[in-house]
Design brief:
The structure is a single chain. By secondary structure, the protein is an all-alpha fold. It folds into 2 domains: 109 residues; 110 residues, no CATH class. The radius of gyration is 20 Å and the shape is globular.
């Protein structure tokens, strides 16, 4: 286990390692994003028992470096900004998939999650197994991942809406309100106008679709009750 901790410590150092001041901004971004890509790929090769005990350090290092990288890319020419933003979004998506697994397994080990009926199944379907419980805690959502969370939420909704009962729609509404409440906080923590605009577009699409689908579900249940 000692070897594992040393290896994990090395990963953290990879993220925080010094880069020459002689490099221009584009070179700095290229080097740092390449390192963070290698870092996440390395994490994927480890078992949960190796990652879990050192997760706080791993998460803090990733959060710091991804946030700094996001800020650095804003000063690049448009073509390079798009390129590096795309690479950063890809690596963040991979990282948050790993994080969801770590959170789930850590919760299971330290404090078992009691699954109660279909509500937990719905939460798992929208956010990943065990990521959101009855407390509707969205503190893991931040300015770097909130757009992808909204995107996954909307895609999960579209894929499953035909299966929802009226009670399911009520639960979806609660989850959506919880995510929206978190967004109000994230906006004050540096959410970019670009991501905010994309989220606004998703919210409009979802609100329109949800209203129609929910009315349809109520009508269908009323018709079924009359039979």
């Amino acid at each position: 286990m000692k070897t594992h901790f040393v290896k994990l410590g090395t990963f953290v150092l990879i993220l925080t390692s010094f880069i020459s001041c002689k490099d221009n901004k584009q070179e700095i971004v290229e080097k740092r994003i390449t390192k963070i890509e290698s870092y996440v790929d390395s994490l994927k090769t480890l078992k949960i028992e190796q990652i879990g005990p050192n997760w706080d350090n791993i998460d803090a290092a990733f959060e710091k470096q991804s946030s700094e990288l996001d800020s650095l890319t804003n000063g690049l020419p448009d073509d390079k900004k798009v390129e590096f933003k795309g690479r950063l979004n890809d690596v963040m998506s991979k990282y948050f998939d790993i994080k969801a697994i770590v959170i789930k397994d850590t919760v299971v080990i330290e404090k078992p999650v009691v699954v109660k009926g279909t509500n937990q199944k719905l939460r798992d379907r929208f956010f990943g197994a065990g990521v959101i419980g009855e407390d509707m805690n969205f503190t893991w959502v931040n300015k770097n991942n909130i757009l992808s969370v909204y995107e996954k939420f909307f895609e999960a909704y579209k894929a499953n809406k035909s299966l929802f009962s009226r009670e399911d729609f009520d639960e979806v509404k609660l989850m959506y309100e919880g995510l929206d409440s978190r967004k109000n906080t994230v906006e004050k923590e540096g959410l970019t106008s670009e991501d905010n605009g994309k989220i606004a577009s998703l919210k409009l699409k979802f609100a329109t679709m949800f209203k129609i689908n929910r009315i349809g579900a109520k009508s269908a249940e009323n018709q079924e009750a009359k039979k």
